[in-house]
Amino acid sequence: MQKKLDKKNFLTGVENFKKGNFHEAKNNFEEALLIHPENLSILENLALTHYNLKNLQDCEIILKKILKLDNKQKKILNFLLKILREQDKVEELKKYIEEGLNNKIIDNKFSIIKNIIFPFINESNDEIKNCRNNTNKYLDNFLNSEKKIQLNIDNQSIDPPIFNYSYDQFDNLELNKKFIALFKKIYPELNKKIDYSQKKNKKIKIGFISEYFTNHTIAKLFKGSIFELDQNKFEIFIFHSHKTKKGKIFSEFLEKEINSNLKNIILPKLFNEKVEIIKKTNLDIVFYPDIGMSSELYFLTFLRFAKYQIASLGHPVSTGNSNIDFFISFKKIEIENAQKFYSEKLILFENLPYYYKPEIPLKLDEDEINKQNIYSCPQTLFKIHPDFDQILKQILIKDRKAKIYFIKDSNKSLFKKLISRFNRNIGTNIDRIIFNETMSFENYLNHCGSSSVLLDPIIYGGGNSFYEAMIYGTPVVTLPGSHLKNRVTLGAYKQMELENAPIVSSNEEYVDKAIEIANLSPKKLVELKSKFKNAAFKKLFENKNYINELEEFLISLF
C-alpha cells in the first residue's frame, strides 16, 4: 500500500512539475521521500522543483545529498556547479570542480573556468586584486605554454568572463585581449576567415546583433537608434538569440517588420549555423550594442561578417578584439585621452543616444514624491563595489532618519552575500538598509519617483536607470571616475544643461550632497524634481540630433 502511495505521489509530482505547479510538485516529491528518502529519481526531481521555485539553497542541499549517495553522477555535479555559481559560492565551486576533474566526471572546460572565474559580489579590494592576479598569471602561463586544450564551441562553451571583470576599479583592456587569445586557442572555429562583401549594397545593410532586444536595458538604450534610422538609406537586420525572451519590446521589433525595412532573424543554437545565416545577409556593417553580456552571441564577435564592425555602450568596456573596428561613445562622457582605454577606434558623438520617454500608466501624486530621507540605489547588486560601503555607512551615521533601499536579485542569493558584507563594513545601522523584492516596471519607476535621492554606485554607475529616474526627475548623486562605465550619469547631466547638478568629486562630497537633497523641505524637493524632469524632457529624451550623427557616421564609412 505504501509503495503505491509513493508511486502515486511521484507521478503526481511529475505531472504538477510539467504544468508549472511547482509548489504542489514540491509537496508531492517530499511526500514520496518520506517513504524512500534515498531514491535518486525523487531527489533529482525535487532539486529541479526547488530550482524553479528559486530555492537555490534547498536545491544545493539535495544535489549534495545525491552526490553523497552516488559521487559519479555527472549530470548532478554539473547541476550543482551551476547552482553554486548562481549563488556566487566561488570557493566551494572551485572545490567541486577540482573533485570532478580528479574523478574524471566533468568536462575539461572546467579546468579553465576554475582559473578565470570572478565573484559577482566581492568581499573586499584584496579579494578583487588576488582574483585578478591569479587570473592574469593563469592566462599568461596558458597562452605561453604548448599545452593544447581544444573544445567544442557548442557543447563546451564557457561564459565570457569579460562581463564580470568589469565591475571593479581596474582597466580591462589588456585582460580582455588575453581572454580573446585564450578563446582563439581553445575554440578553432574562432579563427575562421569569412569572405565578406567589400562592396556596399544599394542601401547600407546594417545588422544589429544582441540577445536583449526585449524588456531589457539594452533594448531601451538602443531601440531608438534602430527604429529612427532613415529607411530610405538603411536596410536593417535584427539578429536575436534563440534565448531572447519574449516581451513587449520584442513585440515592438516584430511589429516594425510589417511596415519598414527592418527584418528580424532569430539565430539558431549551433554556432556554425548562426555564422551561415549572418553571412547570407551580406552585411555592410555589423553593430553589437553589447559585447560580453550574452554567452550565446559573444563568440560571433571573433569573426568578421562585414567590412566595418562596431560596439557601443551597452556593455561600456573595450572588447580587446581586433575584429571590432569602432566603439561609439560620447564627448560629454569620455575623458580627454580616453582612447588609451580602447582597442577599437573611439568615435565620440556630441549627443547621447536617442531614448524614448518611458510610459507609465499610473503616476505618483505630489505627496508621494516629496518624502524626505529616502535614499535608493536601484541597481543590479554586482555594481555595489566594496568601497561604496563606506559611503553608505557615512550616510546612515550623519542622517539618523535615513533609509537606504536596494532591490533583491531575481535568484535572491546575491543580496544575502551583500548583507553579510554590509554587516562587517557598516555595522549597527544596517537595519536601515532595506532590500525590496523584485518589482514590476511600473512599481520600479514609482519607487524611483518616491525616493528623495538616488545613489549612483561608484566604479560602475547607472545608465538606463538614470533615464528612467528622470520620469519623475529624482536627483541622482554621481561620482565620476575615468572610465565610461561610471560617467554616463555625468554625460546625461551635461546634455540636460543643468546648473549645480549633483556631480561630486570625493566620497565625502557624495555623502554630504546626498544628505542635503534627502533633507530638502517637501516643497523644495518637488521643485527640484520638477526642474530635473523638465530639463530631461527638453534635452535628454528623443534627441533627433543623435540620429543625424549616427547616420552621418555610418554613411561616411563608404
Task: Explain what this protein looks like in three dimensions.
The mean pLDDT is about 95. Helix 3 (about 40-50) packs antiparallel against helix 4 (about 55-70) and helix 10 (about 215-225) packs parallel to helix 11. This protein has a seven-stranded parallel β-sheet with strand order 3-2-1-4-5-6-7, covered by helices on one side. Strands 10-9-8-11-12 form a five-stranded parallel β-sheet, with helices on both faces. It is globular. Strand 2, helix 11 and strand 3 form a beta-alpha-beta unit. It has 20 helices and twelve strands. It is an alpha/beta fold and about 550 residues long.
List keywords for this structure.
globular; single chain; five-stranded parallel beta sheet; 558 residues; seven-stranded parallel beta sheet; 12 strands; alpha/beta
How many helices? The count is 20
Summarize the amount of helix as a percent range: 40-55%
Strand content: 5-15%
Q: Quickly give the structural class.
A: alpha/beta
| Average predicted confidence as pLDDT | 95
Shape: globular
Tell me about the biggest sheet?
Answer: 7 strands, parallel
Q: Going across the major beta sheet, what is the strand order? A: 3-2-1-4-5-6-7
| Cα Rg | 25 Å
How do you describe this structure in short?
The chain is an alpha/beta fold.
List the helices and strands and how they pair.
Elements: H1 2-18, H2 22-35, H3 40-52, H4 56-69, H5 74-86, H6 90-102, H7 109-116, H8 125-144, H9 173-186, E1 204-209, H10 217-227, E2 234-240, H11 248-256, E3 262-266, H12 271-280, E4 285-288, E5 308-312, E6 326-330, E7 345-349, E8 374-376, H13 388-398, E9 403-407, H14 414-425, E10 433-436, H15 441-450, E11 453-455, H16 464-469, E12 476-477, H17 488-496, H18 507-518, H19 522-539, H20 544-556
Helix pairs in contact: 1-2, 2-3, 3-4, 4-5, 5-6, 8-9, 10-11, 13-18
